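Duplicate of #3305? Posting structure anyway:
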């Protein structure tokens, strides 16, 4: 293996290390809620919004089955984030945030199932 290839792999590994640590801490329920809520929640929000637009576009084009499949993908995406945020919801500075976060998560789950 050449020196350049070693440096390239090592550099990517260093860049990905914080992401892997975040994933591990989140999956274990050890990450701070604000990080899960904002750092993971915003991209999830963008993705689920795009999936709503694509599913409605598919239905408008007469592809109802694709629209339904995209809705299922949207719901499962939200559900995956829901589980991570729920696990980390106790990692807050004030206990009231746990209740508020869990309430918002459940409301989001209900609304996600209705749209």
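Output from current build:
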């Amino acid at each position: 293996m050449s020196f350049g290839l070693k440096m390239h792999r090592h550099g990517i590994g260093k860049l990905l290390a914080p992401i892997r640590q975040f994933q591990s801490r989140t999956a274990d329920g050890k990450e701070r809620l604000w990080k899960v809520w904002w750092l993971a929640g915003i991209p999830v929000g963008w993705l689920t919004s795009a999936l709503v637009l694509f599913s409605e576009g598919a239905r408008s084009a007469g592809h109802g089955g694709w629209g339904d499949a995209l809705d299922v993908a949207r719901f499962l995406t939200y559900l995956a984030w829901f589980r991570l945020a729920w696990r980390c919801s106790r990692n807050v500075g004030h206990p009231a945030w746990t209740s508020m976060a869990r309430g918002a998560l459940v409301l989001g789950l209900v609304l996600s199932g209705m749209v």
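Confirmed duplicate; merging threads. The helical segments are 3-27, 33-60, 64-88, 95-114. The mean pLDDT is 90.
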